[in-house]
């Protein structure tokens, strides 16, 4: 009987160790497809919407010189600023026209685009059009600077990446028959 007992114990230990090994080898399978790319490039619309949201959050102004958000839609950002009592300047920034920005070595962060900024006095037909907009930095060239991004350098770096992505989308693409 001791021989049968020893055999039963060995058999029991073997079966138990097989069960433990089987539990170690099985890992739960993920139900998500592995083709999902977590670093996918945002679309042009997503990029403009993110920039527009940050612009709205960071409109600058001093006491008596406040800028007020008016609207944002499809890359067109509008704010107003009081010219004099009950008279407003409306400024439109068209993110669809952004085609350039300062070089990477400049302390002054600005973006460029044809007719990027348009400011019109309320009730007037025409206003002032500018091709430059200061985003952050010392603003050496005295461009329009309606936002207060400079204090948050982490946000400024993210904005640089977002504007670089937007510039890629807005750039004129080379035609199939063009060499340059």
Provide keyphrases for this structure.
single chain; 180 residues; alpha+beta; seven-stranded antiparallel sheet; 7 strands; 29% strand; elongated
Written overview of the protein:
The structure is a single chain. With 180 residues, this protein is of the alpha+beta class. The chain has helices spanning 2-25, 44-57, 153-170; strands at 61-62, 65-73, 76-84, 87-94, 100-101, 109-121, 128-136. Strands 1, 2, 3, 4, 5, 6 and 7 form a 7-stranded antiparallel sheet that branches. The longest helix has 24 residues, at 2-25. It starts with a helix and ends in a 10-residue tail after the last helix. The model has no long low-confidence stretch (mean pLDDT 83).
């Amino acid at each position: 009987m001791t021989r049968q007992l020893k055999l039963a114990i060995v058999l029991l230990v073997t079966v138990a160790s097989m069960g433990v090994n089987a539990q170690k080898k099985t890992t739960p399978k993920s139900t998500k497809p592995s083709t999902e790319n977590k670093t996918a490039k945002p679309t042009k619309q997503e990029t403009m919407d993110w920039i527009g949201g940050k612009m709205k959050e960071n409109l600058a102004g001093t006491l008596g010189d406040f800028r007020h958000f008016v609207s944002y839609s499809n890359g067109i950002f509008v704010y107003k600023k009081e010219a004099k009592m009950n008279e407003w300047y409306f400024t439109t920034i068209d993110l669809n026209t952004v085609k350039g920005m300062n070089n990477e070595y400049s302390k002054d962060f600005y973006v460029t685009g044809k007719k990027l900024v348009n400011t019109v006095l309320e009730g007037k037909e025409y206003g002032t059009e500018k091709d430059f907009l200061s985003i952050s930095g010392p603003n050496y060239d005295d461009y329009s600077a309606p936002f207060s991004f400079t204090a948050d350098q982490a946000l400024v770096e993210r904005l640089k990446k977002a504007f670089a992505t937007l510039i890629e989308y807005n750039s004129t693409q080379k035609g199939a028959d063009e060499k340059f």
